Amino acid sequence: MNIGILTGGGDCPGLNAVIRAVVRKAEKHYGMTVFGFHDGWRGILDERFEELTIERMRGTLPRGGTILGTTRDHPYMFEGGTDTVKNVCSKLDIDSVIVVGGEGTLSCALELQNDDVVNVIGVPKTIDNDIGSTEMTFGFSTAVDIATEAIDRLHTTAESHDRIMIAEVMGRHVGHIAAWAGMAGGATIVLIPEEKFNIDSVAESLTRRHNAGRYASIVVVAEGALPEEGTMELREPGVDQYGHQRLGGISNVIAEEIENRTGFETRVTVLGHVQRGGSPNPFDRVLGTRLGIAAIDAANDKNYGKMVALQNGDIMTVPLEEAVGSLKVVSPEFWDAAKNFFA
Prior knowledge:
Radius of gyration: 22 Å
Oligomer: single chain
């Protein structure tokens, strides 16, 4: 049996752990051949691939990014794209393709499965942790580690200068990284997309804290955080070639508004792509490995149109349509607990 694998969407720590696990069990246990397609679906469309072996994957477990490369391109963007996918997979005698990606990549995989183009098995990947039907996605834990370390460092410089420090983290539509890192790092205020904020209330909270003798404050902002209507003007973000808004930089606007309202010196640190670069932490290496093993098991069992997922500590398979039906937001229970520690 021949199997394909590709990584799509944004990179994140742990991708190589997934690929390595797929290849190791495919070769050692099932006697399968694994073809790795370069740069996501572009690798199939352009017939750019390599045969992956255990030897090829040596030393990749601690590496960040993906050895296969990644793009956001997909077959439905190009005329005849789905026919090309079908023909290339037929030529290589590929039974199914393991698709490692986020909501957009997995939605495309589901569409290809439903259109009878190619059999797919999904592996959830995003540092935002916003894919449904799985408790956690690999890459998220590493991103929280990085953000928390940054917040820890910002505390000391904030205290040295009696400043307000704003840390902007990733989180386009959900605030998991902001909420977790804010709680772990002892932030004063956390702003997430799920809860629109009032800048006057933020400024008042910081002023009360300052008047009580606590002169340094940390504000964690998810890049997709939004103000309440009519409370603060934001520039309309541009969009990229895939129709995604180019977010990032809201913290600079918030910093200016806070300074104007409080008179306190405010500085901004935008973590950006630092959060998804570099080596995966041990949790993400293990989770990626477990998901990769489950994915190749599903391929062997011809359990197509499914996604492997972490549920109650176990790795399960769930229907892809359930996983990509809606974004997983920060739960009200978690947010209620976190707010006990925020001003």
